[in-house]
Design brief:
alpha+beta
Length: 103
């Protein structure tokens, strides 16, 4: 009984396109329920740059109930030291796809 948005989120999370922002407890249908919020991106590259770039620049993700998933501005992207970005998650995907195609 999940909504389409919840199904889409699950798909994005399985593809590792989301960054967890926080969790909280709230009532839903008179029951205490745990909620989680995420910022999701269109590609792993954009997620990596957002997560690690925000860390470098000291930009937080906002409140867990209303996360700040905005794109980084061009000025902010220019301030990122890309030599300090760990792209290993992206490299692993590329190597996996290449080796699968070669077999």
């Amino acid at each position: 009984k999940c909504s389409q948005g919840e199904k889409d989120l699950l798909t994005q999370r399985k593809a590792k396109l989301c960054h967890p922002v926080g969790s909280w407890r709230g009532k839903k249908w008179k029951r205490l329920t745990k909620y989680q919020s995420y910022c999701c991106f269109k590609s792993k590259l954009s997620k990596i740059i957002q997560v690690q770039g925000r860390r470098q620049l000291g930009i937080d993700w906002g409140d867990q109930k209303s996360p700040d998933c905005r794109s980084l501005s061009l000025a902010e992207i220019r301030r990122i030291d890309f030599s300090k970005i760990d792209f290993s998650e992206l490299y692993a995907d590329i190597v996996g796809k290449v080796s699968t195609n070669l077999n």
